[in-house]
């Protein structure tokens, strides 16, 4: 009898422990889900128009949606990529990962899914029709080149037989889709503000933005980008001296220099750009992936062999500190609806798998730029969504 009672007590004790563990697990999971939901629920009012096909397929209707299109997660989508290597002959060797031997292809199959809405699939014909006769210019460094080349590929895929005129100058690369009168232009500018050659050497002028300004302000759409070169030193540094006001120095705090330059650019936009004609965007900071500690893989020193994006909607290392400067400076003009931030940082941080790594024409380890097809195509989807609301 004693053994039977002991067995019954043991059984009830096991049941009690099981129930307790279930409750604890439920509460822990609930907390985790709630925290994850809170992480994913940050909203910024970013309005855009979604064009949808009717059931008959012969007309379209427009539906307005407002959500933070930059907050969400990456989901597998077998219908991606939006174009392929054979349909875009313009991909440079820096970004042509497939041509230079990348063996995996899973990185091509991910679609960005915002938390509270669905991005319209990029429609190249609609883009060209909507922006007929307009000039769209990317201004910045090689990451702007990455972005610009993605748009050229997306448009060429939509109209493969279109008459395209190419023109290159010292500062610009231009692709004009003649049938639509749409020009997609890259203007090479590492720092946005001016660098002048003087007797003492190359002087970075944090208060001056005259070299490209007269060209930029005549565009219909401007997408600016800078940051990559602000931390360079030694032979890669693109200046010898820095000038702010009347003071010329050999060097200064790079974050401060960036803030001062970006403020000069923002003031130029506010004073020189006709916002009723020209729509201005700033491309958020594009991340690099050289330190696995940033994504909870200590010991990893590059993006090599990374084949999948991070799950979830937040990056373990958080945002780079420079994004605070960008948002702080832009807020002074964003309130006037003059500049629209393409806030691509977090969604790009999640794509540790999307860099060329060693699969590029230079065979060097590149965890800064991005494969094409690839992540910049999503940047263009986000640009397309925002432009659609500005040019309904």
UniProtKB/TrEMBL annotation:
Transmembrane segments: none annotated. The keyword tRNA-binding does not apply. Residues 1-30 form the signal peptide. Residues 119-385 form the Trichome birefringence-like C-terminal domain. GO terms for cellular component: Golgi apparatus; membrane. Pfam families: PC-Esterase (PF13839), PMR5N (PF14416). Keywords: Membrane, Signal, Signal-anchor, Transmembrane, Transmembrane helix. Residues 66-117 form the Trichome birefringence-like N-terminal domain. The keyword Transcription does not apply. GO terms for molecular function: O-acetyltransferase activity. It is a single-pass membrane protein. Its main location: membrane. It is found in: Membrane. Belongs to the PC-esterase family. TBL subfamily. This is Trichome birefringence-like N-terminal domain-containing protein. It comes from Papaver atlanticum.
